[in-house]
Design goal:
This protein is an alpha+beta fold. The chain contains four helices and five strands, in the order βααββαββα. The two termini are about 20 Å apart.
Amino acid sequence: MGEVWIGVGRAGSAGSLAGWLRRDPGVARSGVEIAPVGALQPQAPAGSMGAVDTVTALVDSTVGLVGLLVAVAAWRRPHGTPPPTVRVTESDGTLLEGTPEDVLRVLRARREQGQAQAHDLDDRRAPEQGDV
C-alpha cells in the first residue's frame, strides 16, 4: 500500500494518537507500523501538515489502512477533535488525500470496480459519515 500521514491539527495530539494506535490490537494485527512522532516529515507544500501535528504510518494492505482509519475514529471520539486530514501515498505514487471518510469512499469504489485487494474491507466496522 504505502505511507499514510494523519494530520491531527492540534499540537500535542499527535503523540496521543500515535500511542493509541500502537496499543490498538486491530492496528497491530494488520501489520501497520506507526513511526515515532516527528520521525518522518511529510513531503507536502509549506503550511500543510508538519511533523509536530502528524502521525506517520506504513501500511502494506487495504485492510490495514481501513483498520488504521477505524482506530483513528475511535481515538477521536473522546478527544472531540475534528476529522483529521489523511494523506496516503501508495506504492505506485498515487496520492489519496482528504478526510478518513473520503479515503474510505475511494477504497470502497475501487473494491466495487474490482481494483482493490480481494480482502473484504468490511471485516472491521468502518466509520460512517459523522463517526470520524
